[in-house]
């Protein structure tokens, strides 16, 4: 009855006004089509910096993850498999167990079908049960659906080219948790790419349906993010940029300070499919785990203990310092406080050699939903919009960025990058360009956010409700709390 009443009510609203959820008064109301956006996004400006060749992504990543299109993903699963997923969650909410499913991906007039793919739950503190409460099994045609994060692995059970989507094997399906504006993380990944940060994952919007066989209709989960998985395949696609793709990729979670003084007390392990959250987790080359661990510890030792000119020259030898600092400039302008420097969290690193001392180290940005005004009391911060970009975190605890910035030549690269991002001429982080991009995306997705979970059914220009500063806005250009303007005012002059 609850669902029937809601359906009748929505139908009445549609007949009288428009299709979709109630709109925020600050948002525009242009109607998009069902797949392709009404207009092309702002073209990428000619950058005032060396931008890498990304032609390798055309036709593959750039086709799958297209910010001007809402792709459609339909997942079909038997009731037995779905109940197995619910039981696994009840057994261990951090489960990494996959279930069998079929998947269909539709975009730009093409439909790709995948039989016997894999589906599992994802997330750390955001991990949720996709249906009902603990102990409950699937309720046919009367399910209590919940938004949650998934990983769709097309090649989990069938290891052939037919189970790849234009060379993509895994897609991270992420609901817009804590982001009423339905754009924060996608905006950040898009900004990384616009700024030439080739280490950033590709991402875009999609609409998601899950059909448990036996139900009359599939459950519409709404508008999701789909994000490129960071794994050995991610590295291989970028092998010419990394220099090699057969070596050590680490996922770094909370507590990953890279500080030699505490790394011996941290949990360092390889991905063993157990669902355990290790501080430093080796994702590739796991057969050489002990050598990879020794390399990581030696890196942290040099990072922590070397000083003066010796450190200056060593970091230039083992790291593309300009790329690292441009990456971190984006990280800071978007207000990413739940990061490496401030909170020892949410990043990957890659070593392009297994040699203990001879390698290049790369920092890979990750997990950008708590940004653009979603602020919190954390680390040394209490206001992600106004906090000093030159002292973003506790360098004594998390030494990598702050220690590099002590050198004038390196600090100049970072400050110039911050200013490039905020320069109106570059159409990057400047508030008018940013608002225009976000409004185009909203016009594309707005009519599709209403969903069968009955959660997150409208777009709002608000940060997460649990944050410590609720007044930040991203679409209201005249607001004194417009995040783009507030953050730009915090940027030091060149």
Kindly estimate the percentage of residues that lie in beta strands according to DSSP: 15-25%
Secondary structure: number of strands:
12
Number of helices: 14
Helix content: 25-40%
What would a concise description of this structure say?
The protein is 29% helix and 16% strand. The chain is of the alpha+beta class and 494 residues long.
Report on the architecture of this protein.
The chain has 494 residues and is an alpha+beta fold. Among the domains are: 57-174 and 200-237, no CATH class; 238-424, no CATH class. The chain is built from 14 helices and twelve strands. It has a seven-stranded mixed β-barrel. A five-stranded mixed β-sheet has the order 9-10-8-11-12. The N and C termini lie far apart (63 Å). Mean pLDDT is 91; it is low at 1-40.
Blueprint (SSEs and pairs):
Elements lengths: L1 H15 L44 H4 L6 E7 L1 H13 L7 E9 L2 E13 L26 E5 L16 E5 L9 H11 L8 E10 L6 E10 L3 H6 L1 H4 L5 E5 L15 E3 L9 E3 L6 H17 L2 H11 L2 H13 L6 H4 L3 E5 L9 E5 L33 H6 L3 H15 L8 H15 L37 H7 L5
Parallel strand pairs: 1-6, 9-10
Antiparallel strand pairs: 1-2, 2-3, 3-4, 4-5, 5-7, 6-7, 8-10, 8-11, 11-12
Helix pairs in contact: 9-12
């Amino acid at each position: 009855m609850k669902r029937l009443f809601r359906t009748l009510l929505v139908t009445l609203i549609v007949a009288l006004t428009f299709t979709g959820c109630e709109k925020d008064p600050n948002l525009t109301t242009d109607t998009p089509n069902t797949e392709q956006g009404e207009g092309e996004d702002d073209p990428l400006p000619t950058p005032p910096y060396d931008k890498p060749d990304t032609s390798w992504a055309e036709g593959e990543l750039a086709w799958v993850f297209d910010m001007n299109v809402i792709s459609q993903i339909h997942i079909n699963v038997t009731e037995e498999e779905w109940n197995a997923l619910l039981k696994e969650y009840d057994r261990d909410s951090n489960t990494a167990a996959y279930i069998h499913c079929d998947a269909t991906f539709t975009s730009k007039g093409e439909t790709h079908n995948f039989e016997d793919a894999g589906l599992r739950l994802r997330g750390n503190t955001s991990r949720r049960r996709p249906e009902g409460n603990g102990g409950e099994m699937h309720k046919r045609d009367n399910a209590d659906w919940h938004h949650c994060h998934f990983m769709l692995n097309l090649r989990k059970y069938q290891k052939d080219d037919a189970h790849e989507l234009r060379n993509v094997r895994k897609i991270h399906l992420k609901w817009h948790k804590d982001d009423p504006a339905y754009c924060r993380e996608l905006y950040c990944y898009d900004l990384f790419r616009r700024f030439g940060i080739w280490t950033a994952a590709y991402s875009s919007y999609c609409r998601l349906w899950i059909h448990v066989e036996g139900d009359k209709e599939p459950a519409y989960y709404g508008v999701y993010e789909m994000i490129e998985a960071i794994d050995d395949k991610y590295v291989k696609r970028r092998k010419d940029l990394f220099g090699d793709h057969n070596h050590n990729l680490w996922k770094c979670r909370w507590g990953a300070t890279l500080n030699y003084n505490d790394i011996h007390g941290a949990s360092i392990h390889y991905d063993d499919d157990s669902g355990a959250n290790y501080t430093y987790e080796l994702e590739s080359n796991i057969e050489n785990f002990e050598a990879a661990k020794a390399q990581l510890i030696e890196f942290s030792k040099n990072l922590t203990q070397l000083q003066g000119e010796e450190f200056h020259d060593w970091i230039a030898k083992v790291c593309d310092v300009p790329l690292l600092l441009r990456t971190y400039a984006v990280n800071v302008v978007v207000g990413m406080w739940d990061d490496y420097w401030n909170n020892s969290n949410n990043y990957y690193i890659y070593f392009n050699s297994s040699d203990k001392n001879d390698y290049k180290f790369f920092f890979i940005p990750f997990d950008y939903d708590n940004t653009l005004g979603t602020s919190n009391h954390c680390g040394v911060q209490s206001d992600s919009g106004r906090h000093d970009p030159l002292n973003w975190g506790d360098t004594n605890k998390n030494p990598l960025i702050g220690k590099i910035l002590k050198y004038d030549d390196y600090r100049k690269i970072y400050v110039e990058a911050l200013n490039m991002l905020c320069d109106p001429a570059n159409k990057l982080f400047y508030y008018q360009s940013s608002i225009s991009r976000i409004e185009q995306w909203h016009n594309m997705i707005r009519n599709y956010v209403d969903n069968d979970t009955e959660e997150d059914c409208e777009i709002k220009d608000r940060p997460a409700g649990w944050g410590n500063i609720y007044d930040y806005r991203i679409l209201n250009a005249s607001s004194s709390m417009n995040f783009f303007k507030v953050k730009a005012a915090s940027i030091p002059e060149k």
